[in-house]
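Dear colleagues,

As part of the handover before I leave the project, I'm documenting each prediction I ran so the next person doesn't have to rerun anything. This entry is a single chain, and its sequence is reproduced below.
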Amino acid sequence: MALFYVLVMLTLGYYQASNIIDESIKLKLSTGYVTYAHLALIGFKLILESGFLCTLICVVFYIIAWLLDCFLWLFNVNEWAVPYLFKILQYKLYDSGIRIYQLLILFIAVLICRGKIKDNQNSIDYSIIRQHDSIFDITMDAFLRQKLVKISLKSRKVYVGIVYSEQFKQVDLGSIAIIPILSGARNKDSLIIHFDCNYSSVYKKIGLYDGKVDKKYDDKLAEFRIMLRVAEIESISMFDFEYFNDFEHVNISIEE
């Protein structure tokens, strides 16, 4: 039976973790035995809450049964409700060793789990993602502050774009989704960026973008989003057109 209880806790833990974004992120970030420990902890908490609630329910029914026994005693009836109640709770289902009260605890645990999923399904704790690594820290900072990001790839390709918000609901920490505004490449010798594609002019032409970074454009520009693998990213930083145009590329010589 011990193995059965462990499987129940892991199953409940996985069901909750896979349906709540925050828990899904933690699950993605955990590895090895830590994953099982995380799932078991979630399941154990659900069983604990369910056991407490089940105890309260049993106490209420016990009080009702005791009052009923008092009423039956007044009329000299020899059938008692309290022993019958305990007999029901202790009844084994098809001689499997599983008792009714255990099924009751499991049923209540599932209801609690579904309630938590309903209440927290779309909530996201962005701090969990930001703590993952520095790339996602900057990505989340740009998303929350509605700033552009500049992403340089190992292939010398460079993208400037808006962080696509819906990606965080898919819990894919191996990729970053952006809606590109500019793209270009670094010179192989000087590594100076040369932008050769301006997506924003196309967006403005078809009336999907007014030049401002805003989450409201996510749905309108979703068809233009691109996925960049984190493993291919060389560097990432904030980007501002005003500051970028202020920089001049100069040759610096040091006199000896």
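The two ends are 81 Å apart (CA to CA). Strands lie at 148-153, 157-163, 175-186, 193-198, 226-229, 233-239.

All the best with the project,
I.
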